Amino acid sequence: MATPGPVIPEVPFGPSKPPVIEGLSPTVHGDPETFKEKFLRKTRENPVVPIGCLATVSALTYGLYSFYRGNSRRSQLMMRTRIAAQGFTVTALLLGLAVTAMKSRP
C-alpha cells in the first residue's frame, strides 16, 4: 500500500482576478443615482410613507408648541396623534416592503 503524499488544497480562484458569483454582475454603474432622484423614485414607489412622516413631524411640532405655550391638554393630544402617525408610517413601510417583495417574485 502506498502512502499518500501531502494534500495541496486547490485554490478556488486566482488572487489576480475576482471570484465569479452566479447572478452578480461585476460591472460598475456609470451613472449613480443622486439623492433627489432616489427620493423621487422611492416616493413614487410608496407615496404613503412621506405622508406619514409629514404627519408625524407636524404632530410633534404642534405638540411641542402647545407644551411651550402651556396648553397641556392639546400637547397630550398631539403626542398621542404623533404615536398614531408613527404607527401609520411603520405600517406603510412594511406594506410597501411586502408589495415590493411580491412583485419581484417570479
From TrEMBL:
Origin: domain of life: Eukaryota
Annotated ranges, domain HIG1: 20-106
Residues spanning the signal sequence: none
Keywords from the UniProt entry: Membrane, Transmembrane, Transmembrane helix
GO cellular component: mitochondrial membrane
InterPro entries: Hypoxia_induced_domain, RCF1
Gene Ontology BP term (one): negative regulation of apoptotic process
Transmembrane segments: 48-68, 83-102
Family annotation (Pfam families): HIG_1_N
Localization per Swiss-Prot or TrEMBL: Mitochondrion membrane
Broad class of where this protein is predominantly found: mitochondrion
Cited PANTHER family: HIG1 DOMAIN FAMILY MEMBER 2A (PTHR12297:SF18), HYPOXIA-INDUCBILE GENE 1 HIG1 -RELATED (PTHR12297)
Official protein name in the record: HIG1 hypoxia inducible domain family member 2A
Organism: Mandrillus leucophaeus (Drill)
Source species taxonomy: Eukaryota, Metazoa, Chordata, Craniata, Vertebrata
Gene (UniProt): HIGD2A
